[in-house]
Amino acid sequence: MRLRKTSAKNPPTSLKSQALEPYRMHPEGQTLTTDQGIPISETDNSLKAGVRGPTLLEDFHFREKMMRFDHERIPERVVHARGSGAHGYFQVYKSLEKYTQARFLTDPSLRTPVFVRFSTVGGSRGSADTVRDVRGFATKFYTPEGNFDLVGNNIPVFFIQDGIKFPDFVHSVKPEPHNEIPQASSAHDSLWDFVSLVPETAHMVMWLMSDRAIPRSYRMMEGFGVHTFRLVNAEGKAHLVKFHWKPLLGTHSLVWDEAQKLSGIDPDFHRRDLWDAIEAGNFPEYELGLQLIPEEDVLKYGFDLLDATKVLPEELVPVQRVGKLTLDRNPDNFFAETEQVAFCVANVVPGIDFTNDPLLQARLFSYLDTQLTRLGGPNFAELPINKPVAPVHNHQQDGFGRQTIPTSRANYHPNSLGGGCPFLANPRQGFTHRQERVDGHKIRQRSESFNDHFSQATLFYKSLTKPEQEHLVAALEFEIGKVERAEIRERVVHQVLVNIDFDVATRVARAVGVPPPKPLKAPKVSKRSRNMVDTSPALSIEHGPRDSIKTRKVAALVADGFAGKELAHVRKRLEALGATVEVVGPTLSPVKSGDGQEEVPLKTFLTASSVMYDAIYVPGGAKSVEALKRVPLAVDFVREAFIHCKPLALSGEASALLDTAGVSQLAPPPPAKGVDGAMGVVRSAKTETKGFSQLFADAIAAHRHWAREAPPPA
Ligand code: HDD
Prior knowledge:
Largest sheet: 10 strands, antiparallel
Number of domains: 3
Bound molecules: CIS-heme D hydroxychlorin gamma-spirolactone
CATH architecture of the largest domain: Beta Barrel
Distance between the termini: 67 Å
Oligomer: single chain
């Protein structure tokens, strides 16, 4: 069996990986053939009548090659078209049999293979990764009882409450139909027109404007199942459940200016980050978290748990961490795996069931339906990446692209010709929909318990730290500021924002040139609704763990004459803590240090940019620093890292680069002796000062240093 490079660390112990092996094509040492297996000895010239004559129709190799090329594209996903996938496994810490009979949640010895696809929502397949958008976080668990798909996002709520509005919402956020502008951006008239007219979007829009919508990495974002689902145990007892993914590297974001620049400099930023981390053996890990709620508490928390525009604050029902997901293998082929993987919210296993959330109910239809167009027929579950590891036997028949070969004469149930096979599962093992009494009029109406659209939007805003709030307001000013029609800008401020926070509405009104709002007399919330907490600190990214520098990327800027020993020391220290240090120099040719060492830069000031790194380090060395000062692109590194609030370590003479970059007036004064790390700018009076590396590591772990952000204009 032949395996990818990473497989040394990741032997094909996974059942799914073994199941994929017969489908993997290994061309090494093989002869070129047609699709029919006929050997081909010439593929650069078509068959012609004479060397300068016309091509002949008889050339079956040319026709097949061309036909296959002409049909390479399939329709991209109507939403979530841009994405990246990875294989891995999930293991539960201890049995959850009290709550569910699902094998993968009750057997701690079981390593369930998974395939995860992360995505953006609005952009097309070739769009940039770092746009402001929700991120999809879809996980296919190949369990012994069939596939379970947890098709979530990195934001715990949704734009709408009833799936019948999904086409309207998606049409409004996608590029506008007349000119197909803008690509992968929500900053345009139709989205904000929709938001201004559909107040149930308010809470989700606040999340979309927050730092959550510009993650640093797929490896550093949370995931949420969004809806309330049900877990059902072997006795048939059910609990309501909300699913969470908690990244072990913490949750971190970019800043907007950086995200926009990255869209041009490295549109594959997140895809590359995920790929490189897995290739390097830095396997992304997330803990599965559950909020478990007794069924009778569905309305206890001041809102309806069937309403997907609401969060259940962790302070009210804590998230229990029950197992771990590890992503340890990159796909072998993007199209065959990441593009052809088909998720479906309706794929559940015995022990997991749905609720009547009207958004979820609509999704149960949509995912199966969309694959028919996207994957060309009903047999997509037979594609290798979608095929369960559990055995599949039924009477489904025919259709485009059928792969398996049914061998029985009996293709119906019940039958005697096939000995009655396949048999029905034992009712205790087979999937049974939980019995639920449903009583009511056939009616097109929203439940009154879904009426409050603003109090959780306010709760979210109030739960953020000051810098996060400032980023959110700046995002609103940017996005609404791009809306051409003044009446839409005004409606967003006067109909939506003012109901969330008067100060935010007033600031945005001024920024986008609409009349200031008047304070509301009484908040527009339904009588039934109330927030049971004033703030929920868990909603803020900044309150998450900030204690590790694992997998962070640091650029070390050097030119001839840099302090070589110091670079070696700092690099060793940071790498021991799990970071990577890349040397960036004027060219890819070796650079000589002042103390006789040599470094070969991995990137140059031309091929790299500060936005590609988490932190910037400039070793001392008068000659090197003087050279860097004369390279505008090197100075840009320092300036941008400073403006993006990234950790900067400038040793000895390198401290002066802040002057050259024109930002020293925004930084604390340099230390006269020793080291100082105020505002995440670590400087030492001389090179190699004690404590320099540790202060730098602490600054990297803190991620960003918002104290540096310029105050908003008066
Ligand atoms: Fe959806 C794809 C997540 C609401 C209809 N959705 C899709 C993907 C994710 C989500 C992560 C990409 C899966 C992949 O990587 O292939 N969608 C969500 C979440 C929602 C949500 C978390 C709200 C809680 N979606 C939603 C609604 C509908 C859809 C209300 C329709 C009624 N979603 C689809 C779809 C897609 C899809 C059209 C497009 C491609 C696909 O399914 O396979 O069926």
